Amino acid sequence: MIKNFWKRKHIVELFVKLVMMFSIALVGGSLLLILATVVARGLPALTWEMVSQTPKGGFYMGKGGGVLNAILGSLYLAGGGTALALALSLPMALVLKTYLGDSKAGSLVRLSLDVLWGIPTIVYGAFGFAVMILLGMRSSLLAGILILSLVELPIMTRAMDEVIRRMPKGLEHAALALGSTKLEVATKVVVPQMLPGIITAILLAFGRGIGDAASVLFTAGYTDRLPSSLMSPTASLPLAVFFQLSTPYPAVRERGYASALILTIVVLVVSFGSRALSAKLSKYTVK
Amino acid sequence: MIPPIGSSTTGATGWQPQPVALARAKSNERARKIFLGFTALPVVLILLVTLGLLIRSWPILSTYPLQDLLFGEVWKPSKMLFGLLPFITGTVWITAVGVLISVPPCLLVAIYLSEYAHDSTRSFIRPILDLLAAIPSVVFGVWGLVTIVPFVESTVMPFAKAAFPYIPFLKVDQPTGFSVLSGGLVLAVMIAPLLISVVYEVLLTVPNDLRRASLAIGATQWETIRRVLIPQVLPGIIAAVVLGASRALGETIAVLMVVGNVPQIPTSIFDAAYPLPALIANNYGEMMSIPLYDSALLGAALILLIIILIFNVLSVIVLQRVKQRKWE
Question: By the number of CB atoms within 10 A of the CB, which of A8, A160, A282, B2 ranks highest?
Answer without folding.
Answer: A160
